[in-house]
UniProtKB/TrEMBL annotation, chains A, B:
Its EC number is 2.6.1.19, 2.6.1.22. GO terms for biological process: gamma-aminobutyric acid catabolic process. It comes from the Eukaryota. This is (S)-3-amino-2-methylpropionate transaminase.
Amino acid sequence: MKNRNGHIKRQERHIAMHIRSVGLQFHPKPNYIHQFEMALSKFNLFHYQLNAVSCFLNRQLPKSARCLSTVLVPGEASGPSVKTTVPGPKSRQMIADLDKIQFAGSVFYFTDYKNSLGNYVVDADGNSILDVFSQISSLPLGYNHPDMHKVVQDPDNQIAFINRPALGIFPAQGWPEKLTNSLLSVAPKGHTQVNTMACGSCSNENAFKAAFMWYRNKQRGGASISDEENSSCLVNRAPGSTPFTIMSFKGSFHGQTLGCLTTTHSRSIFKLDFPALDWPIASFPRYKYPLEDHVKENEAEDRRCLAEVEEQFEIYNKAGKFVAGVVVEPIQAEGGDVHASPEFFQQLQRITKKNGAALILDEVQTGGGATGKYWCHEHFNLPDPADFVTFSKKMLTGGFYSLPEFRPQQGLKIFNTWMGDPSKVLLLEKVVQVVKRDNLLKLVELSGKKLMDGLKDLSNRFPQHMKNNVRGIGTFCAFDLTSPQKRDEAFFRLQQHGVQSGPCGEQTIRLRPFLVFQPKHADIFLDVLEKVLKEIQTP
Amino acid sequence: MKNRNGHIKRQERHIAMHIRSVGLQFHPKPNYIHQFEMALSKFNLFHYQLNAVSCFLNRQLPKSARCLSTVLVPGEASGPSVKTTVPGPKSRQMIADLDKIQFAGSVFYFTDYKNSLGNYVVDADGNSILDVFSQISSLPLGYNHPDMHKVVQDPDNQIAFINRPALGIFPAQGWPEKLTNSLLSVAPKGHTQVNTMACGSCSNENAFKAAFMWYRNKQRGGASISDEENSSCLVNRAPGSTPFTIMSFKGSFHGQTLGCLTTTHSRSIFKLDFPALDWPIASFPRYKYPLEDHVKENEAEDRRCLAEVEEQFEIYNKAGKFVAGVVVEPIQAEGGDVHASPEFFQQLQRITKKNGAALILDEVQTGGGATGKYWCHEHFNLPDPADFVTFSKKMLTGGFYSLPEFRPQQGLKIFNTWMGDPSKVLLLEKVVQVVKRDNLLKLVELSGKKLMDGLKDLSNRFPQHMKNNVRGIGTFCAFDLTSPQKRDEAFFRLQQHGVQSGPCGEQTIRLRPFLVFQPKHADIFLDVLEKVLKEIQTP
């Protein structure tokens, strides 16, 4: 018994460490962890039967209905299967091994990518887990999608995987076509210009830079660059170094390099101890739910936040810290899946334009199809195209679209050695084809509806645990628990029952399934969530 | 004749645009471009004969001597072969195509990576060019190295190419071993800790952040983090946001995100129009050459620069803008291949340590073997291991080594979605094996000596064009022309004769050959350079 208790204590500490490390306020709950362990050997959940004929049926369907077929990734598991605690003993050993080399406190578990397939990730202990977090929303088609395998098996493509160029100087022949077939084929309305980058942070940093250049050129009004500008910027001084700023919103997340971090405000763990620039910050709407019962309050909230935007423009522009751009997520993801109305974004565009600044939509997390459109802001019916749309994650390459007026006037300004990675664009080209062929944006809409209906139903049935603020577009859904502690427990229990979700904000669970997430997967998820809500012990 | 002149004018404008776009002060020289065109059809340079038996002989050599064998990459061309101007008409068309999608002013030419092999890059017009720039020093083993092909052909490895994880949360099983076999197997002396990142800028940004955390924790002296710190940092205010700084050197290049840009001072084009932080800057030694004739002056130069470092520490620390770290390149590459003595670096380490700051060696360009050691600073005989060594480029993945005291205390602080890319580490693991198997660091030493001897000889024979400041370690060599205009012409003529070099600084040409660059390639390069020096027309 002593050993058993010791084991549970160790496990509890381990879990607490892991959840804390991602910023959750986890309070060790020996009771539920203990009970979970006891129960684990007694029941064997989730033996959803594989529909053996679905593969066959799939091939009989017309293309337009393929997304509705039962099997999009042949051979995918029929449900989660959990044999150990998550993380299990093998993962824990590997975490200890990794921790000798680097701080490993953020690792949830080690993964057996070879045996992962479709929506199911298999961990090092052989647990098969329904993954609705998709590598922080970054893997579009699930694990080992057969079409992705084809890309890397093609000898012509392998050239790109092993000869990474300095893309800004020596691109491969055919590169403009590759960009056209991939990024530009799904560009936001009105966009014909695109630059690739390696990651989301670099994408935002370079969009900021492009906005600064554009703003300064407007100020110059055609005057040539002075010697003083050229010499002063070398030592970080005016006039060559500008006092320009980018406005951002409370609760936002735009990356973790120092420029991006200045515009990030979601959680102190990202920012504490680091220097930041003095850039303007406005409030982002925080709506009351259900939306239909709080129309007036929420309209007032939009007005309050937009007034702050106007005010920040005035304060900073008057102080000579000219606001060259406003960066905003269409949905604040890391900050807790905070939504704002289309009207808010329409007005924000109007105010930004009026103040001579660029609107930078950070679609790093919202882009790539999870909202049922490639770009979340396409749901907002903006009067004009966004000035910049930045991306990464599900697009496999980082980068940004921008309107032609934001093209740099000189080389090397929006630049680095690699400027992205053509091999990622080859993969993206195939993703775009599969999304079209398998009608996956329609699927996102259908699966999203199923998810939202189910979540709303559960929030009505479990008001003691779930707040009545289920929200989402497509499968980009989230819900709040009634306390941070309950969120931690729900997140933990979901994992133990074979569902990998994503925590965000204070007490939110976000769902970021793959684009091959189907209504049947939504059913499985909702069943597990219901079970978890019944089990929650946190008072 | 009118057409021909029109053609030359267009070509001249095009070349001028391209060279200017990379910051060279190019002055159109219709004469030499015209003469080059005329001569092109008359001679057919560079028909070095392939030694047909060398493949066979190679296999008979003991491993220790493999690097001396004639053929390291079977099938490699025996010399450059140029059929058109560089860039040729096909490249120029593709540049025009790309320019419709993005500003393409930095592109030299489009490349046929499929037909490139070893040290020779083939451009879209079929010109085979001896590449001593290696994609801005980023590709270690040349084009289509057979061992690199094996990595991507292996079905087990293909898993990593198509299932990119959020590495900080869900690493693949076996990941600690992969890090051990690759990055840690070639770690700088004294280093056991490594973090991966996607690119050089992110590597430096995160090393800065780790230094800031470490410095703040020292200041706290074990006190816990206050609520005020947590809340103030969210809006970029003290005490949570710190006034900490990183010291850098004039002429340095550390990347192009806003934090890195604050420490970059090599050329105004990188910095103009962007905001920068107020961080300390000291002078980097500028030696008189030949070194042996200026020992006293150069020692004084070291002292002058080190006194500035001390002074900057005092000024910034006294002002409360505490200097948490000093970032420095072992050789300032982008800034013009500026070397400093081992004694300078030894003293810099001593001063940095005395002031309680971290020494961050930026080996993004100098690392990976081109100096004959994996890390250039290993030539400096530093009394202690460097606190941080950042890398990217030839290491294929970005990241940094750091001493154990710089480990973060919490997760998510040195973090982003991808945290590098395991597929790059798989490639690196093979590179490290090949470097060892083929004794490539020894080869770098031998080829480097050949290069340096040849360059010195040419600088003696062509004092009207080449400055007497040839410098280098291993194959990481550079030389100056006697004016920026001559450098531009030499760079252009080298390209036309089938050699791709790299410009840097004001009037420098840098050589960054692959690790499979052999003495025979050095001979070819030196022959072409001699030819170019004879042809130079710029007065």
